[in-house]
Amino acid sequence: MAIHNQLKQLKEKRKLTNQQLSDLSGVPIGTVNRILSGQTDNPSFQSVCDMVMAMDGSLDELVGIKEEASPSDKKSSSKEIIQLYEGIIADKEKWMIRLFTCCCVLTLVLIGIVAFDLLNPHIGFFQS
Question: Stretch 2-13: mean pLDDT, rounded?
Answer without folding.
Answer: 86
